[in-house]
Design brief:
- The structure is a single chain.
- The chain is mostly beta strands and 1543 residues long.
- It is 2% helix and 43% strand.
- The chain is built from 3 helices and 116 strands.
- Strands 76, 78, 79, 81, 82 and 83 form a 6-stranded mixed beta sheet that branches. Strands 85, 87, 88, 90, 91 and 92 form a 6-stranded mixed beta sheet that branches.
- A hairpin with a 2-residue loop joins strand 59 and strand 60.
C-alpha cells in the first residue's frame, strides 16, 4: 500500500540548532565525503511468461531515520498501451535508514503468445518523504520474449505437369504474423519419387518468412522430358529451426504428371481349341494375343463380346466379357466348357469378337469360333388318359369319351399304337359297345379319342362305371393319370310322386285322410325303396293328428304305398287345418310331379265370444300422452280369439279413426302404444269387438275419454336493451308478443362469453307482458341469448329466442389525463405512478399500469403502482370483471446519475519549503472523482491562497493552520445536482517535532453514518488504526485540530460533522483530519391500511399510506423478498384468505410491517341436479313420491321453491322436501333450490330440477309388457322370462322378437308354461331332423399323404336343438393331425363332436379333421349323429361315409427322383422329391428344358426345388435331369420330370 507522510520525519535534523547543522555539513564536505547515489536500483531482465520480475533498491548511506520513496514505471519499447506490463504508479518503498538496506518490488509482464522482440521499460523514483537522499538513479527492465512461432506446410498448388508446364507450390505458414523485425527461416527436407534436377528444379532446404508476414511459398517447377513414366511426387517435410516449432501438418505433397505415353499394343484372337463336345466332355479354347509384351506393370484387360447360336449358362459355362493379359506376358486364354444336357440339338457355335478397351487397340483377326457338338437323342413320349366326357346315358343316348394324350407329338413317321384294358361295374356288350383295347395316335399328332357308346336296356338300375387303364407298349411310356372313368346313367330310375287320394279328414267323428306315394313303375331293385318326406301345414302333429314318421317304403315288386292321416279330436273352436306332405330326396328314386299333397282336417266347434268390456286408461288425453294411449279388457275370452278396435272423435263426426287388431291372449289384457295424435280434440270413443278363430264376432263394447292437446304457440320475445352495457346491465327487461294469457313462462339469459345463466319464471297476464328488473351483471361480455318457453297443462310451447350484444366495460373510453409531475429522476426511481394523473377512476374500474401499450397482454401489468426503473409506462382504467381497458396514457421516466466528487484524503504540508514539502497537488488527494473544480473554502485568518492551473497549491510562507478546500463536480443533469467534498490541509511548522504522524485516522466504513430516530455513537469505533506513540485519537467539532477548545468526547448523540485526528499535546501538533458526518432521519410510520375481499378465487387490491417514504409489500411478517412497491398492491390469483405485510422505508429507516388481509369468501353451492320422472297413478310401476333433496348432489344448506306447476297450485312440498304427484296432471314440474348461507360479497346459488310426470306405463324388466300387464297376466315383473323357456314374456304374448334372446317367437304362447313353445328339460318336444354329410379333399391320396375330411351337420327343420353328439372315430388307416370346428368341440380320442346348441340361425355346422394316410388300399371313414335333444326322428340321414383309395407311391427307393410333381402352392407335392436325399449329401443335380437349357442346378440337392427358374415359375411340361448321386461321376442317373400345374 502507499503509506501516508509523517510530518516529523520530513526534517531529519529538526532537533538541532542551525549552527550544528552547518557544522556537520562543513565536516562532511570538508573531509571529502559525498552523498553519491544514495539509493540505487539495478537493471534486471526476465522472461515474459515467467511471472513477476523482481527489482532491488539499495540504500547506500545512513539517513538517521525512517523515510519513504515512491517508485514508478515509464514506457520504453514495452508500453502500457500494448498491455506489455502492469504499470507501477507511486509504489512506496519504506526504508528504516540503515546503510546497505534493500527494498524489493516487482514489475509484472503481461503474458501473451505474440512473438516479438525483447522490450524494455524504465524505473524511476519520486515523492521522497522523511530524508534527504539522492533518488535520481533509474533502472532498465528488459522483458525477454519467450514465445515462438508454430510453422505448418500445405501444398497450395498440389499438382504440376511437364507439358503444358504447370508449377506446383508449397505454402509455409506461421501461426502469427512475424513481427520480430527480421525474417524467420523455416527449414525443410525434400522427398518423394521425383528427382530434383531431372524431374523438377531444386528448391533448397529452407524458406524465409519476411518480417510483417506470416507465410512464404516455394515453387515446384517441373522439367519437361520425353521419358514415358508414371506420375511422380515431391514431398516437403518441415524440419526444426530457430524461432519456431513444427506444427501439423508438417508435410505435404505435390504430384508431377508426365504427358509421355507409349503406343498401345494391338490385340488379336484365335480359336486355339476350335471344337468342343458335351459327351465325352471336351473343352474349346480362345487365345488373345498382343503384338508386344505387356510391360505396363499391371494386367491389360482385353474386352470381347460373345455371340453364336450356343447359349451361355445352358450350352456352355459363361466366360464373361473380358480376359486379363498379365504384366510380362503377351497373351491369355479363355476356355469354352460345354454343359452336357439331354436336349436333342444340332452342333452350336460360340463366337468371341474383340471389343475396344483401355491400353490396347484391336487388330486382325478380331473374331474366332468354337463349335460345340451334342450326343443326345429324344426320349419316348409319355402317354396319359383322361375322361374328356365322363358322363354317358342310355336314353336319350349320350356317348362318353376318353382321350389318350402324349406329352410331345408323335414324330415316329407312323401311327403310334397305345394299348389299354377295360374294367368297371358296367358290362361290355350289355351296358356299352365293346372297346377294341388299343388306339392309334397319328403321326405328328399328340392325342386320340376312345368313344364309349351305351346300350339302352329296360332295366331300372343304378349308374355304372367303365374304367379304361393304359397298358405299357412299344414307343411310349405310361404316365399319370394312367386310367379314367366314364359313368353310364340309366333313365329307368324310379320317379316318386304323391297324391291325396283321400283329401278330407274330420275330428268328430274321426275320419282319416290318406296320401299315396307312387314310383311310376314297379320297384324291381330287389329291395324296398324308401321315399322320404317332410310334413307341414297348419295342423300341429301330436295335437291335431297322429304324428307321421317322415318316410314310406315301397316294397320290391310294388309301385305305390299309402300314408294315413289320423285326426285327434281336441274340442277347441278353430279353423280347418291342413297336413301337407312334401316328398324329399333319397336313394333309389328321383322326385317327380306332383311332389306334395294336402289333407284337410275339418273342425266342428264354433262358440261366439261374450262377457267382455274395455276401459280407456288415459282420461283426459293430452299432448303428453296422446301418442301412448292404452285400453284394458275385462273378462275377455282368450283361446284363439282376436280383437278389433276403433278410436274416433266427435269433433269431426268420427270421420278420422284410429284402428287396430290383435290377439286377446289374457282376459284382462292391456293394449298399449296407441297413437291418437291424428284425432282432433274432443270426446274420444273406443269401440271393440272380439272374434273367435272361425270369425264369429262377439258384441261391440265401448268407452269414452276427453282429448285436449293444444300447446302455446305463435309467441315471440324481444330484449328491450341493445346493447347491454354498464349503464343498464343491472336492470334489463324483455317484452312478449302474442303470448297466451295464463300460460306459465320460463326464461334464461346466457352469454357466449361465459358467466352463470340468469333464469326466471312467471305467469302471463297480458299478451304483451314486459318482464323487468333483470340483473345481468354476472354475465360476461359477448352475445346475450334470451330463451323463453311458454307452457300450459298440455306441456311446453316452442323455445323462442332473441339476441343482443353485451358490451359492458366500466373502464370507459377516455384515457387517464397527465399532469405536470416530473418524470426525470436522479440516481434512483421509486415513483408512485398514480401521481402522474389526476383523473377520477370510473366506478367499477381501477387505475392500472403496464409496460406494454397493448392492454390485452395482462402479463405485462404491474402488480402495483410503483416504478423502480426508467422506461415507458402506460396508465389505463381497467375493468377486471369484463377484462377491458380504457385508452392508455404514456409516461416515460428517465434516470440521471449524480456526479461523484470522490473521496478526499486530508493531508498536511509544511509552511516552509525549506523544512519539508509545501506543495500539494489537490487532485492527488481525490479518489473516484468525476470532473469538477476546486475552491478555497476557509483559511487561517483569511489568508489568501492561490490554486494554480494544475490544481496545485504552494503553502510556503502561508500561516499555519487548517485550510479547507472544496471540490465541486461540474457535470450534473437535473434533477441531479453537482456534489462537493471538502479537503482539509493542515499546514504545520515542519521544523518542530510532532509525534502525531502525517496520516489521518483511517475510517472504518462498516460503521453506520445514518441513524433512525436517535443518534448514539462512539466515534472511536469509526477509526481502524491506532495513534502513533506520543499522540492520542482526538475528536473536534472544528476542522482545525489546533482549536483545542473544540476538542470533545468520542461519545456523540447529535447528527453533525465530527473531525478526528491524532493529537500530540506536548508539541501542540496534529495529524491530518478525518471527517465523520452522522445523519439522523425519522422512521416513517404506516398511517392506514385497506384490505380487500372477494367471492371465490381471483386477485385483490390492497392499499396503504405512510407518513413518508416508500411502501414495500411482503408475503411474510419478517424477512423475505419484496413483492411490490407502492401504495397499492394487486395480489396474485388466490383461492384462500391470505395475509400480506406492508413496510414503509425512507432514508434507510424502515417501519415495522403491518398485516393487510386479502379475504376470500366461499360461495355456497346449490350442487348438481338430476332430472327425473314420477307417476301420477299409483300401481303403474313407477314412483309417485319424489324426495327433492335426492335429486341434488354436493349442495350446501338451502330451501326449495316451486317454479313451474302444471297442477295450477295443487302441488305442495312437505316438510321433508317430498312431493307426492298422485292424481296430479301430467307435465314438467320445475323446482328451484336456493342456498341460504351466502356472506357478502358472495350471493346465494340456485339450481333447478325438472320432474316429468306421466301415467308411467313402466316395464321394469324390459320384456315388452308393462308392469300392470304383467300383474294381470301373473308373470314376474322382475324377470323377463318367467317360465325360463328362452323367450321373454313379451315375445310369448306379443309375438314380437326381442334381439337380446336367441329364440324367435313364431306365434303366441303361454308365458307361464315352460313347455310352451319348446325345449325345456321338463318338456317332451317333437322330434327334429338333423342331416350329416361327409367329404374328403382327396379321395385317391398316396400312402403317407395328408388329407382333410369335412363333416357337415345340417339343421334340416331349422329348429333349436340341444346337446348334439356326432361320432367320427378314426381307425388305424388314418393318423390324426389336427381338427377345426365352426362350433362345438371335438375329442379325437373318443371321436365325439359335441355341440351344445344349434339354432334356427345356425343352418349348418362343420368339422374338419386332417389326417395322414397310414394304410394302402381301399379304406373308409364314417360320421354318425349319436344323440340330440329333441331326438332326431329321421334316421336315414344320420350317417355319412367316405370311401378312399390309398395308393402306394412309385418313388419309394432311396436315390429315386419322384418325377411328377405339382408346385401349385397347395401344400401337396409342391417340391421335387429325391427319396432319401440325406443319404446323398454330396450329390449334384441339374435340370434342363427340352431345348437343353439349364433351368435349375444344385449341389447337395435336398428335395427343395419348387419348379422355379431364374425368371419365376417354369411352365408345365416335360423336363430332363442329370443326377450324380455321389458327386464324383460314379453313379449318374438321367431321366425326365413332369411339372403339372393348374393352368
Amino acid at each position: 500500500m502507499v503509506t501516508s507522510q509523517k510530518k516529523t520525519s520530513t526534517q531529519p535534523f529538526a532537533g538541532y540548532g542551525k549552527g550544528v547543522i552547518l557544522f556537520i555539513a562543513f565536516v562532511l564536505f570538508g573531509i571529502g565525503i559525498s552523498f553519491g547515489q544514495a539509493i540505487t536500483i539495478e537493471d534486471v531482465s526476465g522472461n515474459e511468461d515467467d511471472g513477476a520480475i523482481t527489482l532491488t533498491a539499495t540504500l547506500d548511506i545512513t539517513t538517521g531515520g525512517a523515510f519513504s520513496v515512491d517508485v514508478n514505471t515509464s514506457d520504453g519499447t514495452a508500453t502500457t498501451a500494448d498491455s506489455d506490463y502492469t504499470p507501477l504508479t507511486s509504489f512506496t518503498l519504506n526504508f528504516s535508514g540503515t546503510p546497505g538496506e534493500t527494498q524489493t518490488f516487482d514489475v509484472l509482464p503481461t503474458t501473451d503468445t505474440t512473438v516479438e522482440l525483447d522490450e524494455t521499460l524504465t524505473i524511476f523514483m519520486d515523492n521522497l518523504n522523511g530524508a534527504v537522499v539522492d533518488i535520481t538513479d533509474t533502472a532498465t527492465v528488459t522483458i525477454n520474449n519467450d514465445d515462438v512461432f508454430t510453422a505448418t506446410i500445405t501444398a497450395s498448388g498440389p499438382t504440376a505437369s511437364e507439358s503444358p508446364l504447370t508449377n506446383g507450390e508449397f505454402t509455409v505458414t506461421l501461426d502469427a504474423v512475424n513481427n520480430t523485425g527480421s525474417p524467420i527461416t523455416v527449414n525443410f527436407t525434400v522427398g518423394g519419387d521425383a528427382t530434383p534436377g531431372s524431374d523438377f528444379t531444386g528448391i533448397g532446404t529452407s524458406v524465409p518468412i519476411p518480417n510483417g508476414s506470416d507465410q512464404a511459398t516455394t515453387t515446384i517447377a517441373p522439367i519437361n522430358d520425353t521419358e514415358v513414366e508414371a506420375d511422380e511426387t515431391v514431398t516437403v517435410t518441415l524440419a526444426a529451426g530457430t524461432g519456431y516449432t513444427v506444427g501439423a501438418p508438417a508435410s505435404d505433397t505435390v504430384t508431377i504428371s508426365s504427358e509421355d505415353v507409349p503406343p498401345d499394343p494391338v490385340a488379336t484372337i484365335t480359336a486355339s481349341g476350335p471344337t468342343a463336345s458335351e459327351s465325352p466332355l471336351t473343352n474349346g479354347e480362345f487365345t488373345v494375343t498382343l503384338d508386344a509384351v505387356n510391360n505396363t506393370g499391371s494386367p491389360i484387360t482385353v474386352n470381347f463380346t460373345v455371340g453364336g447360336d450356343a447359349t451361355p449358362g445352358s450350352d456352355f459355362t459363361g466366360i464373361g466379357t473380358s480376359v486379363p493379359i498379365p504384366n510380362g506376358s503377351d497373351q491369355a486364354t479363355t476356355t469354352i466348357a460345354p454343359i452336357n444336357d439331354t436336349e436333342v440339338e444340332a452342333d452350336e457355335t460360340v463366337t468371341v469378337t474383340l471389343a475396344a478397351g483401355t491400353g490396347y487397340t484391336v487388330g486382325a483377326p478380331a473374331s474366332a469360333d468354337v463349335t460345340i457338338s451334342s450326343e443326345d437323342v429324344p426320349p419316348d413320349p409319355v402317354a396319359t388318359i383322361t375322361a374328356t366326357d365322363g358322363a354317358a346315358s342310355e336314353s336319350p343316348l349320350d356317348t362318353g369319351e376318353f382321350t389318350v394324350s402324349l406329352d410331345v407329338p408323335n414324330t415316329s413317321g407312323s401311327p403310334l399304337t397305345i394299348d389299354y384294358s377295360v374294367s368297371g361295374t358296367a358290362t361290355s356288350g350289355d351296358d356299352f359297345v365293346a372297346l377294341s383295347g388299343s388306339v392309334d395316335i397319328a403321326n405328328n399328332a399328340s392325342s386320340a379319342t376312345i368313344p364309349l357308346t351305351p346300350v339302352n336296356d329296360p332295366d331300372v338300375e343304378l349308374d355304372e362305371i367303365v374304367t379304361v387303364t393304359l397298358d405299357p407298349g412299344a414307343g411310349y411310356t405310361v404316365g399319370t393319370p394312367s386310367s379314367a372313368d366314364v359313368t353310364i346313367s340309366s333313365e329307368d330310375a324310379a320317379v316318386a310322386t304323391i297324391t291325396a287320394n283321400d283329401a278330407t279328414a274330420a275330428e268328430s267323428p274321426v275320419n282319416t285322410g290318406q296320401f299315396t306315394v307312387n314310383l311310376g313303375a314297379v320297384n324291381g331293385t330287389g329291395s324296398p325303396i324308401t321315399v322320404n318326406y317332410t310334413v307341414g301345414g297348419t295342423a300341429t302333429p301330436g295335437d291335431d293328428y297322429t304324428t307321421l314318421s317322415g318316410s314310406v317304403s315301397v316294397p320290391n315288386g310294388q309301385q305305390a304305398a299309402p300314408i294315413t292321416v289320423t285326426p285327434i279330436d281336441d274340442g277347441l273352436t278353430e279353423l280347418d287345418e291342413t297336413v301337407i306332405v312334401t316328398l324329399d330326396s333319397g336313394a333309389g328314386y328321383t322326385l317327380g310331379t306332383p311332389d306334395n299333397a294336402t289333407v284337410t282336417i275339418a273342425s266342428d266347434d264354433d262358440v261366439q265370444p261374450s262377457g267382455y268390456t274395455v276401459l280407456i286408461n288415459q282420461d283426459p288425453i293430452s299432448a303428453a300422452n296422446q301418442n301412448n294411449i292404452s285400453f284394458t279388457f275385462s273378462g275377455a275370452p282368450t283361446f284363439l280369439t282376436t280383437f278389433d278396435y276403433t278410436f274416433s272423435s266427435d269433433s269431426d263426426g268420427g270421420a278420422t279413426t284410429v284402428t287396430g287388431t290383435g290377439f286377446v291372449l289374457t282376459a284382462n289384457r292391456t293394449v298399449n302404444n296407441i297413437d291418437l295424435s291424428s284425432l282432433p280434440d274432443g270426446l274420444i270413443t273406443l269401440r271393440v269387438t272380439v272374434s273367435n278363430v272361425l270369425g264369429t264376432e262377439g258384441p261391440e263394447t265401448t268407452d269414452t275419454a276427453a282429448k285436449l292437446t293444444t300447446l302455446p304457440s305463435g309467441y315471440s320475445v324481444t330484449i328491450d336493451q341493445d346493447p347491454i352495457d354498464q349503464t343498464n346491465e343491472n336492470s334489463v327487461s324483455f317484452t312478449f308478443a302474442n303470448a297466451e294469457v295464463g300460460a306459465g313462462f320460463d326464461y334464461t339469459f346466457s352469454s357466449d362469453g361465459g358467466g352463470t345463466p340468469v333464469t326466471g319464471s312467471g305467469t302471463i297476464a297480458t299478451a304483451t307482458d314486459q318482464i323487468t328488473g333483470i340483473d345481468l351483471s354476472g354475465l360476461s361480455n359477448g352475445t346475450i341469448t334470451l330463451s323463453v318457453t311458454l307452457s300450459n297443462v298440455n306441456g311446453d310451447g316452442p323455445d323462442v329466442t332473441d339476441e343482443v350484444e353485451k358490451e359492458t366495460c366500466f373502464a370507459g373510453t377516455t384515457a387517464p389525463v397527465a399532469n405536470s409531475t416530473p418524470t426525470a429522476f436522479c440516481d434512483v426511481i421509486n415513483q408512485d405512478l398514480d401521481a402522474y394523473t389526476s383523473s377520477v377512476v370510473p366506478s367499477g374500474a381501477t387505475l392500472r399500469w403496464s409496460t406494454n401499450e397493448d392492454t390485452s397482454e395482462t402479463g405485462d401489468f404491474l402488480s402495483g403502482n410503483t416504478a423502480t426503473a426508467p422506461g415507458t409506462y402506460y396508465a389505463f382504467f381497467y375493468d377486471s370483471v369484463n377484462e377491458c381497458a380504457s385508452p392508455t396514457l404514456e409516461v416515460t421516466l428517465t434516470l440521471n446519475t449524480t456526479p461523484n466528487p470522490g473521496t478526499a484524503m486530508n493531508v498536511s504540508r509544511c509552511s516552509n519549503s525549506g523544512d519539508g514539502v509545501s506543495i500539494l497537488l489537490l487532485d492527488n488527494t481525490l479518489t473516484g472523482a468525476d470532473p469538477g473544480t476546486w475552491a478555497l473554502t476557509s483559511s487561517p485568518g483569511g489568508a489568501p491562497v492561490t490554486i494554480n492551473g494544475d490544481n496545485s497549491v504552494d503553502f510556503d510562507g502561508l500561516p499555519e493552520g487548517a485550510y479547507v478546500f472544496t471540490y465541486t463536480t461540474t457535470g450534473a443533469t437535473a434533477p441531479c445536482t453537482n456534489q462537493s467534498v471538502d479537503l482539509t490541509v493542515t499546514v504545520q511548522d515542519c521544523s518542530l517535532p510532532c509525534d502525531a504522524g502525517d496520516s489521518a485516522p483511517a475510517l472504518d466504513t462498516s460503521q453506520p453514518t445514518v441513524f433512525c430516530d436517535e443518534v448514539s455513537a462512539n466515534l472511536d469505533f469509526y477509526v481502524t488504526n491506532t495513534a502513533p506513540p506520543g499522540s492520542v485519537l482526538t475528536w473536534s467539532t472544528d476542522p482545525d485540530p489546533l482549536q483545542t477548545d473544540q476538542h470533545r468526547s468520542s461519545m456523540v448523540n447529535n447528527p453533525a460533522s465530527y473531525f478526528g485526528f491524532f493529537y500530540d499535546a506536548v508539541n501542540d501538533c496534529a495529524s491530518p483530519v478525518l471527517t465523520v458526518t452522522l445523519e439522523l432521519f425519522p422512521t416513517p410510520t404506516i398511517t392506514n391500511t385497506v384490505g380487500d375481499e372477494r367471492c371465490g378465487e381471483g386477485t385483490l387490491t390492497l392499499s396503504a399510506t405512510a407518513s413518508n417514504g416508500v411502501l414495500n409489500w411482503y408475503a411474510t411478517p419478517t424477512g423475505g423478498t419484496s413483492l411490490a412497491t407502492g401504495n397499492t398492491f394487486i395480489t396474485p390469483s388466490i383461492a384462500t384468505t391470505t395475509s400480506y405485510y406492508v413496510e414503509a422505508s425512507a432514508s434507510g429507516c424502515a417501519s415495522e410491517r403491518v398485516e393487510v388481509v386479502a379475504a376470500i369468501k366461499d360461495t355456497p353451492s346449490a350442487g348438481t341436479s338430476t332430472d327425473t320422472e314420477a307417476c301420477n297413478l299409483v300401481g303403474n310401476g313407477g314412483p309417485n313420491i319424489i324426495d327433492l333433496d335426492g335429486t341434488l348432489t354436493g349442495a350446501d344448506a338451502g330451501s326449495w321453491a316451486i317454479i313451474t306447476d302444471p297442477s295450477g297450485g295443487t302441488l305442495t312440498i312437505d316438510g321433508e322436501n317430498n312431493v307426492d304427484f298422485d292424481g296430479l296432471p301430467v307435465g314438467d314440474y320445475v323446482f328451484e333450490y336456493t342456498t341460504t348461507g351466502a356472506v357478502a360479497p358472495c350471493t346465494n346459488d340456485t339450481e333447478q330440477v325438472t320432474i316429468t310426470v306421466n301415467a308411467c306405463n313402466v316395464d321394469t324388466d324390459g320384456d315388452g309388457l308393462t308392469d300392470a300387464e304383467e300383474n294381470t297376466l301373473g308373470t314376474n315383473i322382475n324377470n323377463p322370462d318367467t317360465d325360463g323357456d328362452g323367450l321373454t314374456d313379451g315375445e310369448e304374448v306379443l309375438v314380437v322378437d326381442d334381439p337380446s334372446t336367441t329364440a324367435i317367437p313364431e306365434n303366441a304362447t303361454d308365458p307361464l308354461d315352460a313347455c310352451d313353445p319348446f325345449l325345456t328339460p321338463d318338456c317332451n318336444p317333437m322330434d327334429i331332423d338333423l342331416a350329416i354329410t361327409k367329404d374328403v379333399d382327396e379321395d385317391e391320396p398316396l400312402l403317407g399323404d395328408r388329407i382333410t375330411f369335412t363333416i357337415t351337420l345340417e339343421n334340416v327343420d331349422m329348429a333349436r336343438v340341444l346337446d348334439i353328439v356326432v361320432t367320427d372315430l378314426l381307425d388305424d388307416a388314418f393318423e390324426y393331425v389336427s381338427h377345426q370346428t365352426s362350433m362345438g368341440t371335438y375329442d379325437q380320442v373318443s371321436g365325439e363332436w359335441l355341440i351344445d346348441e344349434l339354432t334356427a340361425v345356425d343352418q349348418t355346422a362343420t368339422l374338419e379333421i386332417t389326417v395322414n394316410t397310414t394304410t394302402a388300399g381301399s379304406v373308409q371313414n364314417t360320421a354318425t349323429i349319436t344323440s340330440s335333444f329333441p331326438a332326431d326322428g329321421v334316421a336315414s340321414n344320420n350317417t355319412a361315409t367316405v370311401p378312399i383309395q390309398v395308393n402306394r407311391s412309385a418313388c419309394e427307393d432311396p436315390g429315386t427322383i419322384c418325377n411328377i410333381f405339382s408346385p401349385n402352392g397347395d401344400g401337396k407335392n409342391d417340391r421335387l422329391i429325391l427319396v432319401g436325399h440325406e443319404q446323398y449329401s454330396n450329390n449334384s443335380f441339374e435340370v434342363f428344358d427340352r431345348y437343353g437349357n439349364s433351368v435349375f442346378q444344385m449341389g447337395g440337392y435336398d428335395s427343395s426345388w419348387d419348379g422355379t427358374g431364374k425368371n419365376g415359375d417354369l411352365p408345365k411340361g416335360t423336363y430332363f435331369y442329370i443326377l450324380d448321386l455321389n458327386g464324383d461321376g460314379t453313379e449318374v442317373v438321367k431321366g425326365w420330370i413332369q411339372i403339372v400345374r393348374n393352368n
